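Chapter review: from sequence to fold.
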Amino acid sequence: MSAFGKQTLLLVDDHAIVRQGLAALLAREPDFAVGGEAGTYEEGLAALAALAPDGVVLDLSLRDRSGLDWIRDARAQGYPGKILVLSMHDETVYAEKALRAGAQGYVMKDQAEDALVAALRRVFAGQTYLSPATAELLAGHPGAAEKPAGGVAGLTARESEILYAIGGGLSTRDIAEKFGLSGRTVDVHRANIKRKLGCASFAEVLVQATDYKRAQDAALRPPAL
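The token string follows.
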């Protein structure tokens, strides 16, 4: 916490206009101060080490690498602060993955103006934040979190990233180099993906992976002006 009694925040998003909007929104609040911004994966980790902020507002889809990896790297480096994900991706699919990676909350970007400050206050109070809609959905399905989900929703964060990479045409060796894994580990992930997606062959996995990558890329594409 800063000398002025405010929680300091690091904004990590690859769109400058989004960071500017968030900074303007948070500047109106008496209990938060933006201590730094970063536009890439590595810049974000460097700023985290240099600034040691109380919390991070993180885009899930950075241009150069996944925000899920960023969360894991931040935790692996010993970062103890709060991490709130701000994303365009469907919360019902990705919130659990983000929380599992080490985040404390998840806010959809189209809800940021109304929900961001409340979400930050919630996580700084030691609670987990999900949108009211997702919280209601989970409340309506008690015990659902313990049941294995089917399809893409049942994949772990790493498996989702590998599925995306497969959809981009990356080989086992390419994927191993990209994520710093052994080829054997990648093969295990591929087998798990095949089983969870209910595919009879890796040709079927490739079809689903291609569709998955196309859907994710479309979700990240800026709307036409």
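Two observations follow directly from the output. The CA atoms of residues 119 and 129 lie 6 Å apart. The domain at 151-220 is CATH 1.10.10.10 (Arc Repressor Mutant, subunit A).
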